[in-house]
Amino acid sequence: AGAETVKRAVQLDVASRFQESLVCYQEGIDLLLQVVKATTDEAKKRRYRQKISEYTFLSDGKYHKQIRIEENATGFGYEKLFHEYLTEIVSEVWVEDPYIRQVHQASRYLLYNFLRFCEMLVKGPCKVRTIHLLTSYDKGGGSSQQMTALEEIKQSLSNYGVTLNIDFSSSIHDREIRFNNGWMIKIGRGLDYFKKPQGHFSIGYCDFDLRPCHETTVDVFHTKHTKKM
């Protein structure tokens, strides 16, 4: 019953019915706490405690959920990670990541990762019309490649009715993604939490759900207003 109540709370959160969701969360957690006290199965106790620890509530109704991605874990493609927050009312997205600047950097495919993220937004179910990217300018030999790639992504998005606004900052260090329905996602490694594929024709090269991940932490918040850069 506690798990079902928490699931209902998540559904209410996604529907922006925050006061109702807060009541459900509180009821669900109380039920789960009762189960933890009653059960003698240590494995079940650990599962229930993990479920309870995923949700932190602040007095003003803000929401916080933490997801831990283990080293070499799979099943964390962008669609799986973001889908429940990309409701139909999402029309504007802010991406803040200092390293969206090289196609290849020490086994990282940062610009390709950003492109995959944009592809997810285009597919929906959200109706994104504007994406704001704040990143750092590549002052090294990859500057031309960075600008060429970003302009190509920008032009390609325009074919789908999506505007990409690109800004640069020399002091940016935070990594976060914000949607105009109030959701904010902070990923320790930004969009670059996937490991290098073993080869161009290996499983996981195209499907990120099958790609092993680096260990990282994802923090999801909801506030009544999403700040702009």
From TrEMBL:
<dbReference type="InterPro" id="IPR032341">
    <property type="entry name" value="MITD1_C"/>
</dbReference>
<feature type="domain" description="MIT">
    <location>
        <begin position="2"/>
        <end position="56"/>
    </location>
</feature>
<protein>
    <submittedName>
        <fullName>MITD1 protein</fullName>
    </submittedName>
</protein>
<dbReference type="InterPro" id="IPR036181">
    <property type="entry name" value="MIT_dom_sf"/>
</dbReference>
<dbReference type="GO" id="GO:0030496">
    <property type="term" value="C:midbody"/>
</dbReference>
<dbReference type="Pfam" id="PF04212">
    <property type="entry name" value="MIT"/>
</dbReference>
<feature type="domain" description="MITD1 C-terminal phospholipase D-like">
    <location>
        <begin position="75"/>
        <end position="222"/>
    </location>
</feature>
<dbReference type="InterPro" id="IPR007330">
    <property type="entry name" value="MIT_dom"/>
</dbReference>
<dbReference type="InterPro" id="IPR038113">
    <property type="entry name" value="MITD1_C_sf"/>
</dbReference>
<dbReference type="InterPro" id="IPR052817">
    <property type="entry name" value="MIT_domain_contain_protein1"/>
</dbReference>
<dbReference type="GO" id="GO:0061952">
    <property type="term" value="P:midbody abscission"/>
</dbReference>
<dbReference type="Pfam" id="PF16565">
    <property type="entry name" value="MIT_C"/>
</dbReference>
